[in-house]
């Protein structure tokens, strides 16, 4: 038996046959992922390069600062050490003389007044921080004690 078209086995409308189309979505593109992958790799490489450059820059900056400080400290030490040593020698002579000619109380007083922190107080030196020169070429505390031991 053949179908005459008015039977229930076929629908009233006939769908058009499905044919393949040339329209593809981006997700169908096999090579599209490679572009994203390459861009991601380039971004990671760029970030890694930036991190390395930042690290080298920071390290170079720190090395430069450290080197400059070391050089500056050494120059300051070379300049100030002999002057500080001369002050220390003066203090030592004063204290030894006071100890030998006077009482322990007077020695303790001299020792307190000639303490290194007091001797090197900023108020006794020129105002430029680069120079350890005594203002007016006299240190008032040392002058006082030198006058005391010479009388």
Automatic annotation (TrEMBL):
Residues 28-37 have a biased composition (Acidic residues). It is found in: Cytoplasm; Nucleus. It comes from the Eukaryota. It holds the Pfam family Yae1_N. InterPro entries: Essential_protein_Yae1_N (IPR019191), Yae1-like (IPR038881). GO terms for cellular component: cytoplasm; nucleus. The keyword Nucleus applies. Residues 12-50 are annotated as: Disordered. Residues 60-96 form the Essential protein Yae1 N-terminal domain. Keywords: Cytoplasm, Nucleus. Belongs to the YAE1 family. PANTHER family: PROTEIN YAE1 HOMOLOG. This is Protein YAE1.
């Amino acid at each position: 038996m053949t179908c005459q078209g008015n039977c229930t086995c076929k629908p009233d409308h006939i769908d058009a046959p499905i044919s393949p189309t040339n329209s593809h979505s981006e997700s169908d593109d096999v090579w599209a992922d490679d572009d994203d992958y390459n861009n991601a790799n380039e971004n990671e490489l760029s970030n890694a390069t930036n991190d390395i450059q930042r690290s080298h820059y920071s390290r170079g900056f720190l090395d430069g600062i450290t080197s400059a400080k070391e050089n500056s400290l050494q120059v300051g030490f070379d300049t100030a050490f002999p002057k500080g040593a001369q002050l220390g020698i003066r203090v030592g002579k004063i204290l030894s003389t006071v100890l030998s000619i006077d009482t322990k109380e007077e020695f303790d007083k001299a020792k307190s007044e000639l303490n290194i922190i007091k001797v090197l107080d900023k108020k006794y030196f020129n105002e430029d921080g680069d120079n350890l020169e005594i203002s007016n070429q006299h240190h008032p505390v040392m002058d006082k004690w030198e006058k005391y031991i010479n009388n």
